[in-house]
Amino acid sequence: MMRLKLIAILVLLVICIIAICMFFSGEGQQVFSAEQSVQSKSAADTRPAGEKAASQDSSPSEHVVAYYFHSDRRCRTCLTIEAYTEEALKEKFAEAITTGKLVWRSIDVSAPKNKHFVDDYQLYAQSVVLSAVREEKQTKWKNLDRVWQLVRNKQAFFSYVQTEMTDFMKE
Question: Which residue range forms the structural domain that includes residue 50?
């Protein structure tokens, strides 16, 4: 009986590894710990050319982009994280969204033009990332890694995302 449990655990582990590999199917990708993903980073603007052009017309010179990064295979939890994040931001930051001080983007990192985001933001799973932009250059970013822990509690999830955004915009 103990042997069957061990085999079942190993099979589940292999399935998880395969799922992670499928998510990060690009060459040279690395898996990072949660500790490494929560940090600020100065870098050049890493958005695709189409996003750069669009933001020049519609976003102020200083704004925050809230990204939800996902793959083309999406489970119910992934869809919930995206929906909760968008709803939490619209609930508390409607004016900032209207004025362009806050921009919401959902990005499929499995698309070839978006694969760079995996390295840029050290993504290891579907993620919510906040990115501060000043004069078309990213000045800092933060991965909201607790969304996976809080997704089963909508109120706690909203509180976390809204508090993190408020603090991020103050910095």
Answer: 32-170
